[in-house]
Specification:
Layout (H helix, E strand, L loop, with lengths): L2 H37 L5 H28 L5 H28 L5 H13 L4 H22 L6 H39 L10 H14 L4 E7 L2 H8 L1 H19 L3 E5 L2 E6 L3 H18 L7 E7 L6 H18 L4 E4 L1
Parallel strand pairs: 4-5
Antiparallel strand pairs: 1-3, 1-4, 2-3
Helix pairs in contact: 1-2, 1-3, 1-6, 2-3, 3-4, 3-5, 4-6, 5-6, 8-9, 9-10
Keywords: Membrane, Transmembrane, Transmembrane helix
InterPro entries: Diguanylate_Cyclase, GGDEF_dom, Nucleotide_cyclase, Rev_trsase/Diguanyl_cyclase
Organism: Acetivibrio ethanolgignens
């Protein structure tokens, strides 16, 4: 697990909530711009700085919001969305430090800065080391800004309270980062368990449905295979269910060796395969599976029949299954160890 995976998972899970966060900031800035336009004395430099900061953050927020929405429509752009979220939140922290510097110089407090710092820390959009670095640097800029504007009466309690606050938000950031990472690992493990057949350790039917859906979205052609074991019931009845389980495990191992990871246990003694090779090549590999099965089992003859169908990228999954199942039925009708290509 790395930080990129954590942030990607967190962004995918909560990007709509993050968008709401951006919308609220944009609304707040509009409110402050209207208020400033109506009541600010623009001859005062500080008021002009306040108003300019509202306009600046509003423009950045709107740009970040639209870029976020555009990127999250396509998973290929998630990296851009992550960089966008990170850059925006770094900008937001420095913006809040600037505004709080103005507030303190006017006799106020660093409420804006503390609120933004806590909010960004809770959203896990920055790596902890970057977050801490940005927090320290922005704090230094805020204090320097206050002193540059003219308030040089900052006392020890202010610095002490500020350091304590930074330590607290840093601890919160690390805790959130750690808990998010643990949740990510747990979810990933649960997803693996949910998509792996316990007996054969190949992917199960749920994983097959998910993969087919992904192939539909991406388009393109593939070869789909449905197969089952000839006389599997007879093997179970004669040699017992434990031997039948060993039979399925050995079949799954051979299929994986020949076809790779895109082997799925469809149910019972039925397996499915997705390949990006031609139907003829896949059919020949199926015959190779039968030869290896024959060499592996000496107590009984274990063979498979298969139905092969090559899609053209324009059929739904139900039609693909029906055509492959029809080819499998024809193969079994012809005899044992048969492979039929559906055209």
């Amino acid at each position: 697990m790395n930080s990129k995976e954590i942030f990607e998972m967190n962004l995918k899970k909560s990007w709509r909530e993050y968008e709401v966060f951006l919308i609220l900031i944009a609304i707040l800035e509009i409110t402050m711009m209207v208020y400033g336009y109506m009541y600010f004395n623009f001859q005062d430099l500080r008021r002009r700085l306040y108003f300019s900061s509202y306009v600046f953050l509003f423009c950045c927020t709107v740009a970040a919001m639209f870029l976020n929405r555009f990127c999250m429509k396509n998973e290929k752009n998630v990296d851009i969305a992550m960089k966008n979220a990170g850059a925006y939140n770094v900008l937001l922290i420095f913006w809040s430090a600037f505004v709080s510097a103005l507030d303190i110089s006017n006799g106020g407090f660093a409420v804006t800065y503390m609120t933004i710092l806590a909010a960004v820390g809770s959203m896990i959009v920055l790596q902890p080391i970057i977050y801490i670095g940005v927090s320290i640097l922005s704090s230094a800029c805020m204090i320097a800004g206050v002193m540059a504007i003219g308030n040089t009466e900052l006392r020890f309690p202010f610095f002490l309270n500020h350091i304590i606050f930074l330590l607290v938000v840093a601890a919160v950031e690390f805790r959130n980062y750690r808990s998010t990472g643990e949740q990510y690992m747990l979810n990933k493990k649960l997803e693996e368990w949910a998509e792996i057949d316990a007996l054969t350790q190949v992917a199960n039917r749920r994983a097959l449905d998910i993969y087919i859906e992904q192939l539909k979205q991406n388009g393109g052609c593939f070869t789909f295979v449905l197969l089952d074991v000839d006389n599997f019931k007879s093997i179970n009845d004669t040699f017992g269910h434990e031997e039948g389980d060993k039979c399925l495990v050995s079949l799954a191992d051979i299929l994986t060796q020949i076809f790779g990871k895109n082997v799925f246990r469809y149910g019972g003694d039925e397996f499915a395969i997705i390949s990006f090779e031609s139907a003829e090549v896949v059919a020949e590999k199926m015959r190779l599976v039968n030869r290896q099965l024959k060499d592996k089992h000496s107590k009984y003859v274990m063979q498979i029949c298969g139905g092969v169908y090559h899609t053209e990228g324009d059929l739904d999954e139900r039609k693909v299954f029906e055509l492959a199942d029809s080819a499998l039925y024809e193969a079994k009708h012809q005899g044992k160890a048969r492979v039929v290509i559906k055209v």
